[in-house]
Specification:
The complex is a heterodimer of chains A (365) and B (529).
Chain A lengths: L8 H14 L9 E2 L4 E3 L4 E3 L7 E3 L14 E5 L3 H8 L4 E4 L4 E4 L2 E7 L7 E7 L2 E5 L21 E6 L11 H17 L4 E4 L5 H8 L7 E3 L1 H12 L8 E2 L13 E4 L7 H4 L5 E5 L6 H6 L4 E3 L7 H11 L3 E7 L1 H10 L3 E4 L20
Parallel strand pairs in A: 3-4, 4-5, 5-6, 10-11, 11-18, 12-15, 12-16, 13-14, 13-15, 16-17, 18-19
Antiparallel strand pairs in A: 1-2, 2-3, 7-8, 8-9, 9-10
Chain B lengths: L1 H11 L4 H14 L2 H11 L10 H12 L3 H11 L2 H8 L11 H11 L4 H12 L4 H12 L8 H12 L3 H8 L10 H6 L14 E2 L1 E2 L12 E7 L2 E8 L2 E6 L15 H4 L4 E9 L8 H5 L9 H6 L2 E11 L2 E2 L5 H13 L7 E3 L2 E2 L4 H8 L7 E8 L7 E2 L4 E5 L3 E12 L8 E10 L2 E8 L5 H14 L2 E3 L2 E3 L5 E6 L1 E4 L7 E4 L2 E5 L11 H10 L2
Parallel strand pairs in B: 1-12, 2-13, 7-9
Antiparallel strand pairs in B: 3-10, 3-11, 4-5, 4-6, 6-7, 7-8, 11-13, 14-15, 14-18, 14-19, 15-16, 17-18, 19-22, 20-21
Helix pairs in contact in B: 1-2, 2-10, 4-5, 5-6, 6-9, 10-11
The chains are: A alpha/beta (365), B alpha+beta (529).
Chain lengths: 365, 529
């Protein structure tokens, strides 16, 4: 399987010409919604498709957005290494943030979404009309990934995982102070601290912001593998030790262990006898969810925008048309319509089925 | 409020009873007396009168949050708790407050009956001084429904650790009709036993579910009775006091005027544990008949005539003012029968008959006939057992009938609330009726978290239509539903209603073509009504 990142874009243009004869650029919308995913008729490509297609533009490497089986991939330079790590040998090209690529009759560019390193919003311009697909995003800078940049557009397709007014995040420095305090208190009492965090994104965000002077930091294999990829592309993270079979509460007293949420309350976690377990997620804002997980502590830390963030981001695009997807879509659409937007819902299959993707349904194995 | 909120957070974050009891005991030692008293009151289901109703709270919260009311109403079912929804939507507070719990409650009580503008101003001000977790509790003080993950039993244990008084004594002291306004710490907890015990009931003895009676050993050491399907009650006559308590420690004397003649007929100093049933003159009526009376503060003459109440007595707890609870059941039973036999005829009370049996197999055959007797199954009690406080494993067992079951298919799924806010957990099921599928029941419990997760993913991928929070799905997933009873219901499309439906199993092995039919349910209804 050859790496085609050296291909010229003309090659792509040629491949989609037959399709572009069928489309009527004057009347077709810039993007349409199909059972394979979001499609650009003018460019002949899909964005984050969930069924195999010829050409897939990918916003970020979480498994519900970057799926296997597509013929060709296009993503940001910073997103591609994790995609290769997860999907194996794929035919992929990369673009830098802000660079414009002509594909068929569409101009395409990637812009920071602030969700995780390399995560992008995708801007598609056809005949002067601009649509933007947000992918997953958060508006608060996290000290790790490229901060979210609003992109002016006519139509904005926005996620709304936390699109209800009950989701209002506490600023990251306060949440990280809570994490440090919890870890320090556990370490002082001789307990291990196990913190559940998604292995791509949330784990590294915590690593980049936690106080590494409190004690040793151990990682679950899934987290460490992702750390290796991200360090390889130049990201700076504090030292971590893979918690292999020989590592226990005795070998690393007072450690912070970062593990995927599915590892909490399992035999894997059980070797850290007497550990305090916590989970970092936007869902921890709700007492009911916290209690269902049976955790002593929840930290409200999300890589998705909260209520204020969603509203701010949508306003900042200047878009008049907004399509919402993935989350409390019906309520959020009505709210946007009340605010004067031409608002619709897009059904997608972004759902986080691996327990790896961020802040969605939890998988209890 | 800060100390109380800290206590709540500690209790909320652990499932270990030792940690809970230690935290509560520390609170009972250290908190101001008025706060302690209110904490006991709240944990035993007592709360101040409402300073605002739910509609007012929603309206004011939406206003303070700068969102339309409809949006608040949409968020509420997702969070699943009004107090928490309000705490989460409000903007961050601009101030702080170190007022203690009792002072906050005092300020709420002072608002009762005030003009809406005054109450609104006061509550908005309070919200603006309280952190999110304190707001949640403040709202709970107004709306009631305090659950702190602490049973009354655990609270009593903590109180016992903090005060040195025996648990049984404390449990007894805390029952009845007191509020922090009518008593104080000394009178409630510390004083010598007040002369007027009055209407105070004893804590109910509870039974544990029985799987295999053979494990109980020698049949001669046990007494069996029907497990009636009514309302467990404790009837008290002490001097001029006549009281009827439900198992939830609710005083229900006035709901059952049928029992008024017993106020004089029972000997002074009598306490009886029994089951309140609707009665046809000789035997119980189905629970549905009694249910019509439950919840009505004033029972009409018509209802009284249609479903007269009757007490089938299980146990005698006090006789001639003497506490009999430490005597063996056999002795209490003999005294109960003597006492009831001595009463004049025609009163709405009688003994719940003891069922003789030679061996466990014979008893199992008797149990199989329970539905015909309008009973849920059997109670099996050790003849030598005292009347325990609460649930004490080993002496009292409930041996219920196996539930009815039906295989059916899921038609609709709805997301849950609270603990299950991001999962589809509430399902509507249908049975076959010729070519059609007829929805006939809902159920939302009985599956594991892993199963709910899997079904949630399936529902998301297979949604055919959305109606608000409800999704229509293809009729593909088959479930076995268990239920306790069935009755005709003109209000339901299927014409039937089930009692206590829940999911027994996800039948992945069963195709939709093999689910049960409406006819089979109607046949069941015909046999059991």
């Amino acid at each position: 399987m050859s790496n085609v990142s050296g291909n010229r874009s003309d090659d792509l243009l040629e491949r989609v010409l037959p399709g572009s004869i069928l489309c009527d650029m004057a009347n077709d919308p810039v993007l349409t919604f199909t059972d394979k995913g979001i499609f650009c008729p003018a460019g002949g490509f899909y964005i984050d498709p969930w069924r195999p297609v010829d050409m897939a533009l990918i916003t970020h490497g979480h498994s519900d957005h970057a799926r296997g089986g597509h013929n060709r991939y296009l993503a940001t330079e910073a997103a591609m290494p994790v995609m290769r790590h997860r999907l194996g040998a794929i035919r992929g090209e990369t673009l830098r943030f802000g660079d414009v690529r002509r594909i068929g009759g569409a101009n395409v560019s990637f812009h920071p979404a602030g969700h995780l390193p390399g995560s992008a919003q995708i801007r598609v311009e056809v005949g002067g009309e601009v649509w933007v697909v947000s992918g997953d995003y958060k508006t608060e800078p996290d000290g790790l990934c490229e901060p979210f940049e609003p992109v002016r557009c006519h139509a904005f397709i926005s996620e709304c995982t936390f699109g209800l007014p009950v989701f209002n995040w506490t600023p990251q420095p306060e949440v990280m102070a809570q994490v440090n305090e919890w870890w320090a208190a556990n370490a002082a009492a001789g307990r291990t601290s196990i913190l559940g965090a998604y292995s791509l994104g949330k784990s590294q965000r915590i690593l980049a912001n936690v106080n590494p002077d409190i004690g040793p930091i151990l990682t679950h294999g899934a987290v460490e593998a992702t750390n290796r990829v991200l360090r390889g592309q130049g990201l700076s993270l504090p030292d971590t030790v893979w918690a292999g079979p020989d590592i226990t509460a005795k070998t690393h007293p007072g450690a912070l262990v970062i593990a995927p949420p599915s590892a909490l309350n399992t035999p894997w976690a059980g070797r850290f006898t007497g550990a305090s377990q916590a989970f970092a997620s936007g869902w921890m804002a709700m007492r009911g969810v916290r209690r269902r997980r049976g955790l002593s502590q929840g930290f409200v830390l999300s890589d998705h925008a909260d209520w204020a963030g969603l509203n701010w981001a949508i306003r900042a695009t200047g878009a008049e048309r907004v399509f919402v997807t993935h989350g409390y879509t019906q309520v959020f659409r009505r709210w946007l319509a009340d605010q004067g937007y031409d608002a619709g819902i897009v059904e997608t299959e972004y759902e986080g089925d691996e327990g790896e993707t961020e802040d969605d349904i939890e998988v209890v194995e | 409020m800060i100390r109380f909120a800290t206590l709540f957070d500690t209790l909320d974050r652990t499932t270990k009873t030792t940690v809970k009891v230690a935290a509560l005991a520390a609170y009972f030692r250290e908190a101001p007396e008025a706060d302690r008293l209110w904490t006991i009151a709240l944990l035993s289901g007592r709360r101040p009168k409402r300073a605002a109703n739910s509609t007012e709270l929603r309206t004011w919260a939406a206003e303070a949050a700068g969102i339309p009311l409809w949006l608040f109403e949409e968020a509420y079912p997702v969070v699943g708790d009004l107090s928490e929804t309000i705490a989460l939507v409000l903007p961050p507070p601009t101030g702080t407050s170190d007022l203690p719990l009792a002072a906050w409650i005092g300020s709420l009580i002072a608002l009762i009956g005030q003009h809406a503008d005054i109450r609104r101003r006061a509550i908005l001000d309070a919200w603006d001084q309280l952190a999110t977790n304190e707001r949640f509790l403040y709202n709970k003080l107004i709306t009631g429904g305090f659950r702190m993950g602490v049973s009354q039993g655990l609270m009593v244990r903590a109180l016992s650790q903090a005060t040195g008084h025996a648990e049984t004594e404390l449990a007894h002291r805390l029952m009845g009709d007191w509020t922090p306004a009518t008593t104080d710490w000394a009178a409630l907890i510390e004083s010598a036993d007040p002369a007027a015990e009055g209407a105070r009931p004893y804590p109910f003895a509870l039974a544990t579910a029985l799987d295999d009676p053979a494990a109980l050993g020698e049949p001669a050491e046990w007494q069996a009775e029907w497990k009636w399907d009514g309302i467990r009650g404790q009837m008290i006559r002490r001097g001029e006091t006549f009281a009827l308590w439900s198992r939830g420690e609710e005083l229900i004397t006035d709901r059952f005027p049928d029992f008024a003649p017993l106020a004089q007929a029972l000997p002074n100093g009598t306490v009886i544990d029994g089951e309140i049933l609707a009665w046809d003159g000789n035997r119980p009526l189905p629970f549905a008949r009694l249910q019509k009376r439950i919840g009505r503060l004033n029972v009409s003459r018509k209802l009284l005539a249609e479903a007269p109440a009757h007490l089938l007595a299980y146990d005698l707890l006090e006789e001639g003012g003497i506490d009999l609870r430490s005597l063996p059941l056999a002795e209490r039973r003999a005294r109960l029968e003597d006492l009831l036999n001595a009463l004049p005829a025609g009163l709405p009370i009688g003994p719940s008959p003891a069922i003789g049996f030679a061996d466990w197999e014979a008893l199992a055959r008797t149990r199989a006939t329970a539905r015909a007797e309008i009973a849920e199954g059997l109670m099996v009690k050790r003849l030598s057992s005292p009347y325990h406080v609460g649930r004490r494993r080993g002496d009292w067992w409930k041996w219920k009938l196996d539930p009815f079951t039906v295989d059916c298919v899921m038609l609709y799924a709805q997301s849950g609330s609270g603990r299950r806010a991001n999962l589809f957990t509430d399902f509507t099921f249908a049975v076959q009726d010729g070519e059609a599928l007829v929805p006939f029941t809902k159920a939302y419990s009985g599956l594991t978290d892993a199963e709910f997760n899997e079904i949630t993913r399936w529902v998301r991928r297979n949604t055919l239509e959305k109606f608000g929070p409800v999704r229509r799905v293809p009729p593909e997933l088959v479930f076995e539903i268990a239920f306790e009873g069935i009755q005709a219901s003109p209000r339901h499309k299927s014409g039937i209603a089930l009692r206590f439906p829940r999911m027994l199993r996800w039948r992945r092995d069963k195709p939709v073509t093999e689910i049960d039919t409406l006819d089979s349910l109607k046949a069941l209804l015909a046999r059991h009504s």
